[in-house]
Amino acid sequence: MNSTGRESRHLGVRIDRTAADVYAFASDPANLPGWAHGLGGTVEQTADGEWVADSSPLGRVKVTFAPRNDLGVLDHYVTLPSGETVHNPVRVIADASGCEVVFTLRRQPGTTDADFERDAGTVTADLSRLKELLESD
User: Fold this and answer.
1) 66-84 pLDDT, tens digit each
2) Which residues contact 72 (CB under 8 A, 6 or more apart)?
3) Rounded to the nearest 5 degrees, what angle is found at the Cα of 78, between the Cα atoms of 6 and 84?
């Protein structure tokens, strides 16, 4: 079934590290290949300062993070080969001595139920890798 609604799903993981530690690591685009496999295995900074993932399942994509901030806002924009830009809201939320990372997955127009579920699985796997990386230190 195809849906054109703007359904959202909040996917989260608790990480036993401070919000500041998690934010510092996750906000550095150079660290993306280690945990955000949904963007592919390589992310490189171009000469003009842009971050590009050449091996993304969607092809060559540009990734732009929100400016660094003290609020845990880790939003990023992914510009697809078509030129379309997708906004991905992400928050790092302090919780006692740890934190929670919440990714809001928004269903894009024309996305099938199966594709939306696949996207949710990819994001969940990425968040699990982030947790594993940060808790193994």
Assistant:
1) 999 999 999 999 998 899 9
2) 19, 23, 91, 92, 93, 94, 99
3) 65
